[in-house]
Amino acid sequence: KLRERRWRAITGRILAGLRRHGNYSLRVRADINEVARDAGWVVLPDGTAFPSSSHSQNPSCIWEFVLEFWWPSMGTDLGVVNVSGEVADADELVGQLRVLKAAGVDGVMVDCWWGNVEAQRPQEYNWTGYKRLFQMIRELKLKLQVVMSFHECGGNVGDDVSIPLPEWVIEIGRSNLDIYFTDREGRRNTECLIDKERVLQGRTAVEVYFDFMRSFRVAFDEYFEDGIISEIEVGLGACGELRYPSYAANHGWKYPGIGEFQVLTKKSEKAAEARGHTIWARSPDNAGHYNSEPNNTGYYGRFFLNWYSQVLLDHADRVLMLARLAFEGSAIAVKVSGIHWWYKTASHAAELTAGFYNPCNGYAPIVTVLKKHGAALNFTCVELRTMARHEVFPEALADPEGLVWQVLNAAWDAGIPVASENALPCYDRDGFNKTLENAKPRNDPDGRHLFGFTYLRLCSVLFEKPNFMEFERFVKRMHGEAVLDLQA
């Protein structure tokens, strides 16, 4: 009985997806086997289905996805809209998007940069460039994922443009350095802000973010109402990810350094005093530097690690609460960094400095916060293989596959939707195949899978013939189309 109900539910979702996204005219009481036969598939008496020989497809090559939940999108260039409110190389962009649309890409991801939109004065927003860009995307009948980017761009892996924080924020920061995170040498990191300092013209960073999001929601109301904007990803830290700026390249970090804890002395002192141990508030002085290895550093106490990770969770809680108010009724998501180096060590040191207390309770507290606010999880590094990373840098003890498995299962167990993107440029079949393996694990008894994937990033190299052939093949497989020589 339970198995029959489950299969009926799955069938219902498939049919709903076909009605919503496919070019099918289905009866109210459509039979899934009849639908398959109409599509040219052979259906055996036991329910096994595969394409007929006229389709020249091998049944062993079929990998189906439930179309109701799955769609691939493309991340645009980071500087697609500049500070002057202009779309960079608009004609070339339209041509590229047309090619991607023809290849089966369903949507586009766009970063809306705080530093560009609210650049000169507080609460004066220039959405002109984004309005033009979104209109171009709508005319191509593509969906939109929009990132609220409250961090600066430049100085990290993949940053090919420089977009600072708003000028008026930088000016305030010159006399109020505590709005920035600080490393153990006292260097300020201007990539993102500490959220509780009420020095931004009488507002905290979180309040400024809320006003920005509310302005965006009003300015692009028609795109929400039409369903063109399908998701808002809320930036929560460095690189738009939920993490501390612990491995900043502009402070000398290089892979696979463990990074540095970011100092919040005033906050830690208050927390330690509340526990009756003021000495616990001391920032780590034996935790190494940006490029240290775990075995070259000391250990640090549970109080500090619990407190350090909890501050990050509290920040996510505050911002997501306001994001839910600003985007009521719309899908929101949070990007979590895939810090896979030193994953095979007991300390998980690189994760600790970023704010992920993995040795204690893993990523469960993060997905709990996301579930509280109805937010999806967007996770990175799904294209990486552990053996390949070992060949590149064996000393890093990296395990991207183990990390992805842990995080995805934590999210699925909590019942929140999960999407993904690649961490590094990917043009080869091996990386695309690994992404597909993570997107829908073949042996998952519950049939759990990702609901979307964003390819990073739109660039001229992608359109080189061999690269684009692999990408187009990858998109077809994401859409459930059978492709020959999958193991080649």
Automatic annotation (TrEMBL):
Residues 1-56 form the BES1/BZR1 plant transcription factor N-terminal domain. It comes from the Eukaryota. Substrate binds at residues 111, 151, 159, 335, 340, 380, 422-423, 457. GO terms for molecular function: beta-amylase activity; DNA-binding transcription factor activity. One of its GO terms (biological process) is regulation of shoot system development. InterPro entries: BES1_N, GH, Glyco_hydro_14, Glyco_hydro_14_CS, Glyco_hydro_14B_pln. The keyword Protease does not apply. Keywords: Carbohydrate metabolism, Glycosidase, Hydrolase, Polysaccharide degradation. Its EC number is 3.2.1.2. It is an enzyme of class 3 (hydrolase). The active site is at residues 241, 421. The keyword Thylakoid does not apply. Gene3D superfamilies: Glycosidases. One of its GO terms (cellular component) is nucleus. It catalyses: Hydrolysis of (1->4)-alpha-D-glucosidic linkages in polysaccharides so as to remove successive maltose units from the non-reducing ends of the chains. Belongs to the glycosyl hydrolase 14 family. This is Beta-amylase. It comes from Brachypodium distachyon.
